[in-house]
Structure formats: structure tokens, C-alpha cells
Amino acid sequence: MNLQLNKNLVVLDIESTGVNFIKDKIVELFLLKIKPNGDKEEFLQRFNPQVIMTPDVIAVHGITNEMVANEPIFEEKAKAIMNFIGDADLAGFNSDKFDIPMLMEELGRAGIDLEIEKRKTIDVQRIFHKMEPRNLSAAYKFYCNKDLEGAHSASADTIATWEILDAQIGRYSELSKTVAGLHAFTSNGETLDLSGRIVYNNSKVPVFNFGKYKGFAVKEVFQKEPTYFDWIMNSDFSMQTKKVITRLRLEMMSDTTAK
Predict the structure, then answer these.
(1) Where do the structural domains in the chain lie, given as residue ranges?
(2) Backbone phi, then psi, for 198, in 5-degree steps?
(3) For residue 233, what are the contacts with CB-CB under 8 A and spacing of at least 6?
(4) Are residues 217 and 123 in contact, defined by beta-carbon separation less than 8 angstroms?
(5) Strand pairing category for 89-92 and 206-208
(6) What is the pLDDT of residues 140-164, one digit of tens each?
(7) 92, 161 in Cβ contact below 8 A?
(8) pLDDT of residue 258
(9) Please, which residues have CB within 8 angstroms of residue 140's CB and are 6 or more apart in sequence?
(10) Given a cut of 90, is residue 33 above it in pLDDT?
(11) 222: helix, coil or strand?
(12) Do residues 252 and 219 make contact, with C-beta atoms less than 8 angstroms apart?
């Protein structure tokens, strides 16, 4: 194994009812836990999303409404999922933009905080795009010299992602062999949340990256228009974005009180 681990790493892949991780639901989740000694554990579960999937969605992952009709809902397995993950760092293919935020939303609806700020994340797609811009199937062929059989099934995509990650570390001597180093390489250090709604400006001040206050400092906006916070909290933003927003607002209030 090329990757140097000092704690567990969980590689994940999600198949869902759509790509809106705030509104859509997980229909299949595969977790591959890699331990520092190289041992692996797997967790595979399908879920009843309690909505009817459209033919376009079914065509992507091949999971029909009938296949999940008798499966548990996500909330029933949320604790088992969290127990499997434990304090592990996380990795996946396009996971910072999709899989991890969607998992966070589903766990959040079940009353569980993934506490992403306490974990390192590795987005294998970002390594791939920085080194060899292509897609997952091409990456698997390029790095592992294998054809990806069963693409768009959670288990096949997850296992392929893990094999690609390990091959990338072996191929590029300039890549770090640690999770912390790969996290720094793949993460976007300018964003405070995975959705990219709150970013740092050139002065390292958190600013909004959307809407009428795009580019404005978050704390200054809340001072001028306190109701903007309430609007965000009642709108379709991810739970992590709301958590970051809440922390910044509390910091603003604390700074004001201190003065």
C-alpha cells in the first residue's frame, strides 16, 4: 500500500435520486474502510428514498424503484453508518462536491453530525484532474490498466476509486503519501464549506460567494442586515453551510460584545 495512514480512511460512493444533495436522497451507499495496517472492511446498503425515481435517474445507476421498495429508510441505518465511519478521514471521487455533502445532509436529517471539520478529506477526482484530466472509467484504465466493469454501481465505483488513489500515490513521486498531505492537495483552501457558499477573500476574510452580497464580508452583512441570517437558515442551504454561517455570526456577536 502506497498511502501512509495513521488512522482509518473511509472511501465512499453514493447513488442517489438526483444531484441536489439538499433535496435528493441516497438509494445506495458503499463504504470501504482502509486501516493503517492495510486491512479493509466494507459496508453496503440500499435505502428506500420514499420518493419515486424517474427513468432518467434509474438509467444512471440501474437501481429501480422496485429494488429499493423493501429496503430500510436511511434514518434506520444512520447510527450503523456513523459507527462504521467512526473518526475516519474520508475519500471519494468528486466526494467534496457531492458524496460527502449528501452524506452529511442525510445524517443531519437523522440527528447526527458528521463533524467534517474534524476530518481530512481526499477528493480523488481533483488529483486526477490536476494530473490527468479525465473521468472515473478513464482514470481506472489509465492508472490500473483495467476496464471498469459495473460503472455507476456504488461498490464498483468505490473499489475503483480506492485502487486509483493508491496507484496515483505510487505513480507521482511529488504527491504526499499521507492523508493530511493529500487533503491539502485536493481541498480548496479558499472555501469554508464544501458547497463553496462561503469563501475567503484575498485578505483571508470570510465573504459570501452567492446572491446580492457576493464578495461582501459575512460579519459586516450580519451587522448591517441581521435578518439575512434568518433568511439563510430558513432557505435550501446545506447543513454545513448553515453551521459555518452560525459560527461566523456568533463570532461577530462576540466581537461586538467585547467592544
Answers:
(1) 9-186, 198-258
(2) -120, 125
(3) 242, 245, 246
(4) no
(5) unpaired
(6) 999 999 998 887 789 999 999 999 9
(7) yes
(8) 65
(9) 146, 147, 148, 160, 163, 164
(10) yes
(11) helix
(12) yes
CATH of domain 9-186: 3.30.420.10
| pTM for the whole structure | 0.71
3-class secondary structure, 191: strand
Q: State the burial class of residue 112 (Cβ atoms within 10 Å of its Cβ: 0-12, 13-18, 19+).
A: middle
CA distances from 148 to 55, 130, 131, 164 (A): 23, 21, 20, 11
C-alpha–C-alpha distance, residues 235 and 222, integer Å: 16
Say if CB 241 and CB 196 are below 8 A apart.
Answer: no
Question: Which distant-in-sequence residues (6+ apart) come within 8 Å of 49 by Cβ?
Answer: 16, 17, 24, 25, 26, 27, 68, 73, 74
CA distance 73 to 79: 12
DSSP annotation string for 28-47: EEEEEEE-TTS-EEEEEEE-
The dihedral sign for the CA sequence 162, 150, 107, 254: positive
- Average pLDDT on 77-105 reads 96
Q: How high does pLDDT run on average in the chain?
A: 92
Nearest Cα to Cα of residue 11 among 168, 141, 138: 168
Place of cell 451587522: 223
Please list the helix, strand and coil fractions of the chain in percent, rounded to the nearest 5, in that order: 45, 15, 35
Cell numbers linked to 145: 490498466
Length of the chain: 259
